[in-house]
Amino acid sequence: MQWQWGLRLLILFHFFALGMTYSANWQRSAIQDNMLSLLHPYLIGGNWYQEMLPVEWISDSIGQKTLRISIQTVDSPQSWTPALDSSVKSIDQARMQRLLHVLTELALSEDTHGLTKVLKSIVLHLEHDPVRPQQLVGIRLEKLSETFVQPESESILYEASLARFPSGEFGFVPRIESHRSVRSLDSSRGTP
Amino acid sequence: MVNWFIPLSPKTISIIRIVCGLIAAIHFLLLLATGTTWLGAQGWLNVESSSFLIGESVPGTGSFYRWSILFWYPEAITWVAGAGLLASLAAIAGLGSRVSTFIVWLCLATFHHRAPLLTLLHEPLLVAMFAYLTIDPGRNSWSRPGFSSGTDRITSNVATQLIFCHLWIWIAFSLASMLASPLWWNGEAGWLLIQQGRGWLHLSEGWEWLGQLLTHLTIALQMAILCCMLRTDWSWLSRWMLYLFVICVLLLLGDWLYASVLLAASLSLTPNQSLPETHHGASKSANI
Known about the structure:
The complex is a heterodimer. In chain A, a hairpin with a 5-residue loop joins β4 (156-164) and β5 (170-174).
């Protein structure tokens, strides 16, 4: 019957597109890229795109590490308080781990622009927290080993002070002392 | 060889719909509790940063096709999650048929398009299953005696086979992504997951061998499932191995929602799918 052949072709097309999407997630050729771009309306519009891949169970770049975002607030500018921690058990722990994973990948690939975009969202969230709003003066992303003590400079992936502008906007001023081989004599962190 | 175009009892697809509906209801309940904190106007990942991550206005990223209403109305999260929850409950009860399963798919996809990088392990498979359930959600739970939805249908067969094929591709690429990492070859992956304390298995030093064993078992089971799924008369074997794989998921990852979705998908591995091809004549009287 004709409709059966039509349906068969549709099913073949669907699984062909799906297979190509999944196989392109890790590495892809130019021809795959072109085909995927051509199929974007179906794949993305129909919600079949590559983020739908099985997310890896464990990441090589993170391994046995706890990811954490710590903050310094106006009330306690010298101490670091954990704001997001991948090891803290909660109902949305998995989503928190995903966000920290994305941030870590951005930091490791040295995409500072992307990293600060997402960190800005996190700062805004913390500053507008309806239960405990706090004004931040510093933020850092850490990758902590659970098995051995690391020097601080090795665990910090990104650290920045928050620079406030008269308009109410803010920006990030990266702190680089922690990555120096020789520490500066003045141990207090510089503020913008 | 399985014939996709012979009528099949909607019993299997109905059970899949009920199990998926339960999982989706839990998923939407969690989103009702935490969705605004994550994706609201002042959420952890606001619209601006999310748009950046999907590559908005960058040529070739296809961000134009991400159609989530949550980009324009972030505060609609509660409404979308609420609608998804109601539609999931309707899907469990067998009310609304294709409409309820379509609404569940729509709500799941709305969240996915808004923040694809925050997609969890269970979501891709769940949303795909709802897309297939829209073709045929099976019969109503409380259908009246003699109600036509109880008869065998070709669409029941097609929907079940689509879930079956999707599951096969899913496991194949899950396996491929694992094998791309040396951690799954040298046996460290299982031990690292145990050390992270994500799964149900908590072990101290000295039990590394068990972590390695579970790593190799996870890989071997996926390979075996893929092979057995190719033979319809071995569907019972692939189902049992999938149950073992689910146990590995729980021990190493502790992701019970992902385990539940896998169990729901495993229902498509039923002996029903290997109906003889001699049923061709029956398709003439089938409901489509």
